[in-house]
Design a protein that fits this description.
Layout: H1 13-22, H2 28-32, H3 36-41
Amino acid sequence: MIEVQDDGQGLDRQRIQQIALQRHLCREDDLANLPPQQIESLILVPGFSTAPLLTDISGRGVG
């Protein structure tokens, strides 16, 4: 059984931007011009995760 919970805090756009820059998914000047919805959509990139420890299951929905 898999149980999913939402903490209700929403997405941390600043953290998403930091990871996108670290992983070279976007350039800093490109990120500055992206609307919030497009920044949030970066979490859908395969393998993207803000989890501090990456494992085989890290990615969508895991951090």
